[in-house]
Structures are given as structure tokens and as C-alpha cells.
Design goal:
The protein has helices at residues 7-21, 34-46, 49-62, 72-82, 89-100, 105-117, 120-138, 145-170, 173-185. The protein has 186 residues and is an all-alpha fold. The relative contact order is 0.12. The mean pLDDT is 83.
Length: 186
Amino acid sequence: MLPDARRHVSGPLAEQLEHQLGLTPQLEAGHLNVASVAGIAVVAAAHSDGYAATGHLLGLLAALPAPTEAGEHFWSNLWRSSGTAYLLPANIKAPVLRSLAGEGTDLARQILSAVDEMTPPQRVAAGEVIGQALTESDHFPDLKTQVIGELWLRDLELTAWRVLHADHRSADPTGTKTFLDAWTSA
């Protein structure tokens, strides 16, 4: 479940290709040599962490029961146990849809707000609800539901932070240049 690549997401990558490799936007694919293609792959890999993190965030949400009538019991239990409505399908639908278009920062912020709002007992209770749903759907009967739920919550939280961190990093060409200058002078 990877988000679609859109121009607003690929813009920073295109700028880096132009800056790092001297490739102009008008360059035709037939004019690329093997070294240029390899350079594109290296620069793309360096910029893929935010895109991959957004895809992983969506994958984690896809592991939960679908927000349909059949999954209604899960979502109401999650709301009651976590004490937050931030994770309810009605509240995350728009950010999820934007994430599918490649823009995961709104979803990441909402997830971090939800996790931050939970007290430790609420987090444990939410982990139990999530773990129960995951053990039923993924057939992990030998693992404790609370452990699976807590691991899922940790992964969700860390991945949301990675989405925000990658977005912040890619939007700051001055910071990138400062970082590069510092490391080349060391």
C-alpha cells in the first residue's frame, strides 16, 4: 500500500537531481547513460525515507479492521479504551486519503496527537484492543494480544515521527547545505 507519487512530493527529488547530477527537467530518457541512471537511483534512495514511512504508516492502518459496519465494534472499543477520538475513521479519513496521494504529514501529526493524548493505562488498554484485532486477523494465537498491540502502537508512533522528520529535512535546502558543509570540512 504505497502512496501515489505526485509532483509536490517529487519536486524536492527533481531539484536534487538537477543540483547533484546536473540533469535538467528537459532531459530526455534516451540521453541518459548508465552513470546518470545510477546517480538517479542513489539520489532517489536518499530521498525515499519519507515516502517509505508514509507507505508503512498506511500499511499499519490497513492491518486494522476496515472502517465498515463489520469493523464498527473494533473502532468503538478503540475509542473507549484509548480515550481519544483522533484515531476514529471519521477523523482520519481525509489525512489517510491525502497520504495515499503522497502527503503523509497531516496523518502523522494526527497520530502523534492521538498517542500523546493517551495516558499510560489508556495506551495499555488500546494496545489490548489492537492486539486482539491483529491476533484474530493475522492468526498469532501464541502471542499475547497486549504485547502485539503495544508493538503496533510503538511502530505507528515511530513511523509517524519518521514521516514528519523526513518532511522537515527535505524542505530545508539551507539546512542540508549546512550539514553537507560541516561533514565535508570535518
